[in-house]
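Handoff note, outgoing to incoming analyst
You'll be picking up this chain. Sequence as last confirmed:
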Amino acid sequence: MNDTHTPTGAGLSHWPLDPSIELRDQTLGDALRDAAARFGERPALAWPTADGSDSMDYRATLQAAEQVAYWLLERARPGDRVCVWSRNSLEWTLLEFGCALAGMVIAAWNPGWRDPECEHARDLAEPALILAGLDTRGEALLARATDLAGDIPVFDLGALRDLAREAAPRPLPDVAPSDLFLIQFTSGTTGRSKGAMLSHHTVVNSAWLRTQMSGADETEVWVNPSPLSHVGGAVSMLPGAVVTGSCYVIMERFDAGEYLRLMRLFGATRIGGVPTMLLGMLEHPDWTPGAAQVRSIGAGGSQVPQPLIERLTREFGAPVLVTFGQSEYPVITLSKPGEDPALLSRTVGRVAPHVELKIVDMETGATLPWGEKGEICARGPLMMLGYYKAPEATATTITRDGFLHTGDLGTLDDAGYVRVLGRVRDVIIRGGENIYPAEVEDALLAHPDVAAAAVVGVADEKWGQQVGAAVRLRAGAQTTGEALAEHLSERVAHFKVPRHWLFVDEFPMTPNGKIAKVEVEKLFPAQN
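Most recent structure output, in case you need it:
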């Protein structure tokens, strides 16, 4: 980014688009072909095995991805959706590349989802195929996926390479950078998942901007537990390795001890995660300061405390990079190596190249003066195309002049640094997972003993936030938090189940008759 880039307007929180980094006009499949041509014998993918490790160079990765594309094209057409339900795996990465080459759209389910969440995503995406692997506990999802699929063909993701070997070569379709590539499931104020539509252009260049801002090159080794079902893994990590021709290490799930082992085993140069993960590594008994040779540490998902930034910088001897983005707009802000830890702890970095950003009044939509709190709005060439099959939600989220309402409250200063101060949509962020209270409240209200419920974030030193639920029972009803948690465990992912419970006779109310959630939050003490 050009440090001489200046704001627009007289005293208003409006930052203009900076085009100083040239974008790449290619699909993810093109980026893989380019890397195979330039770095054919360099490792593209690496993974641990029972007796050590294994890897696949760029030439072999392209060949394997092409075989997957052939196999997909025997069963579906370009433009069809392919759902994948799994924790990270080698086959997951090959499926993402195969879909890119076949012109198909990948739509991932969170491996922590319960059946109702999957059913909604299935009905929204209407996939031609479903591939199921293992959940984060290592349990097979194939049987559940088959039960959920109806007439949709379901395949074992773990068998993908064997299945693909039998596919006959065929011409691959022409795919344009503007074509839809990824449906990234997210949630809104209704609590039901929406599908943010991301093009190849957005996926490739979101990764490209992050690598260019951090100085990454083909010698990097990326070790990062970000799930490929999240925008961080599917858009930033795996494509980030491809656009630089570097190595992506496949980490199935986060485990602090395994993270440290893989860093040493593969010689990681780029690591990252949400603050909870990073703190977990530092506090693991296997960690020794100075034992890794990383070049940068990416941190996102929530505000990063200054003591954690300083400790990471000191013990790893590498800069911490912070970022802010969302499924609808993967890269909105970025920091650069060497920035002041105190500044990084207060902000999420500067407005990224190719992003125009402003802070607006939530009632009037007017741009606010520097430093005033309002909703963060952004536009540019790397935002989502819209929500899949949801034109009304798209129209509500994207203004007529192309600005995306992020749903986040924040401020912007005249140097381009952004602070995130809260969430318009009441999002709870627990260890990097976005949790929408309305979804949990709806599930609670399905319990026969619950008359009303308010779900809020409870400050937590380890997780950033935990989920708290205040509940008013129906007259004469008796139940416990444990019983309600069991009820929820069949309806929402485990990380959405409240960890803190309160039973109230009445809720604090606003003048217009709504539950005053700000007052409800005060009923829950912060957790150390």
